[in-house]
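Schema walkthrough. Field components (list of strings):
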Amino acid sequence: MKQNRLNRVLEYMAQEKLPQILVTSTEAVYYLTGLWITPGERMLVLKVSPEGCALYGNRLFALEGLTGDLPLIEYDDTDDPVALLADGLKDGPVGIDKNWHSHFAIRLMQKKRSLELRLGSGPVDTARMYKDEEEMNAMRASSRLNDRVVDWLPETLKTGDTELGVGRRYLERGAELGAQGGSFDPLVCFGANCAEPHHGTDNTELRPGSAVILDLGFTLNHAASDMTRTVYFGEPDDEFKRVYDIVKAANAAGRAAVRPGVPVADVDRAARKVIEDAGYGPNFLHRTGHGIGIEVHEPPDISRSSSAVCRPGMTFSVEPGVYLPGRFGVRVEDLVAVTEDGCETLNQLSRELKIIRP
Amino acid sequence: MKQNRLNRVLEYMAQEKLPQILVTSTEAVYYLTGLWITPGERMLVLKVSPEGCALYGNRLFALEGLTGDLPLIEYDDTDDPVALLADGLKDGPVGIDKNWHSHFAIRLMQKKRSLELRLGSGPVDTARMYKDEEEMNAMRASSRLNDRVVDWLPETLKTGDTELGVGRRYLERGAELGAQGGSFDPLVCFGANCAEPHHGTDNTELRPGSAVILDLGFTLNHAASDMTRTVYFGEPDDEFKRVYDIVKAANAAGRAAVRPGVPVADVDRAARKVIEDAGYGPNFLHRTGHGIGIEVHEPPDISRSSSAVCRPGMTFSVEPGVYLPGRFGVRVEDLVAVTEDGCETLNQLSRELKIIRP
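Field assembly_structure (string):
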């Protein structure tokens, strides 16, 4: 167990009056144990309580000898792991990990009616918002790798490339350089597709005279990166260049607002104001950013409705955009980390408009 | 809505005494509506009841105009979709999709205490076991594509290839030919890695004198394929050739046992018997197969403990293997479809041992 992390989780549990929680996601179990276990359809539970922790896993996970002092309760495919788990729980409230498959939760409820199921992801999610030095170093390394490949990628663009093909090229180059994989499916948009923030990368072909959005991230040592650069393939017109400068300025304004004590809603406001003042407010269609860490989307939201406040160790994206339906879109995204007295931008790659001549 | 599929689901609901179910997985919603919606963290629910169905989706899913007669209830990021859903449900039992995120189920329970949550995946899972003609055609096309690429792939093997690299080569070729992607992460094993059925494909390099397991599948038009061929890179010794023939015969025996009315446990037994009779029973470490369709793993298990019986329209894998720790492993896998009077093998690729000279 990572004792410092566990201690913080136990504190947050006490604050939420949760006497026991079931940690079940691969990422949350990794956060507390350092073990990366992908259970598939089988049950994986790290029970956490002030009286002690225990890990429930299928024998096929081959965990024996890997858990150190942490008690390991193994089961076979012929056992009922939910019954085993029910035996190990105290009556009363039990916090359930938010994304645990409902069939486990429903069967647990049916096995042991004295349990009171509650949402129980808060303590680990909150702890994970504040990265320790080990995590911060992994986040930096992941973004450095991302910088390197996103710097290279636009130079490879050529007429006839497909969005999916460019995404694969990114992943291949990252794999050669040691990435575990993408932290999400590469999001590559050409031309008018850039105007849809949720465009699904497809076989659209690149033609001269197209904006190109590259929204990309790797996983490296279980830390996610995530960056967006918008480049132009061909000769951009004045409106594209103007919108690009506005979005770049909004990105800079958002990052400049980040320091301890500032509500994340103010980070959203700072970025949004630049775009609103330029007259494109209605074309900025989404929140300004999201927390990131082991997973590419983690709490908190960086949005007007978020109540979170910047504190040292938080890492999140700042990714304003302007979308002009049927024409083009621009998004510029970086990751930031809140420091003791301000903000460190994890991405070093230039935000100057890159123009690729076909 | 796909009316024939819905009618079958409603029948199975009546048998299970479920007056209403919440269908929430992307695949199950696709099965009933033809709409492929990936909700991410947001709520997606297709409510199914004899009184009528309704689809609950975030406005960002952009479903307006796509649902035809099916009532669409849209919500925004500022709404509480669980409260909306609670309003639309009758008191009493409600079936919950097995993999719905627990936080939705727990909040639904808390919002409406008059609901009684039960497992509710059975009706759709059962309907999906029996493919209609549209699905069967998609399954055939996906396996044909898989045949083509797995036929080509061994010819590309060369000394120094990595397992991960061969997997990527497979995916790239498939993408060029129109695959949506892999139906699972490519499983490529070299040499002694072949002896671990759960080996994680890694950067092991190919050396002459190695068995090579290629366990691969694509998704094409939302139908999964899945096939394994074991080839030899270099000159196989007599034991490898003997084990290969045994596994090939076990695969053939398993497929030959498939016809309507036969318990799937007997399919497992038929394949297993060939391996046991040859003295390698303890080296066949897993079930003989699994159902497949929109997803690569679907009910039923093809194992001794399964109570399922072959019926027309079922599609599943037959994949016996023999694993000799520290030395090599052999697995030969095909997909079959139960027909009115027997079995159709969806893979056409030869099962003769392919020997690649380095």
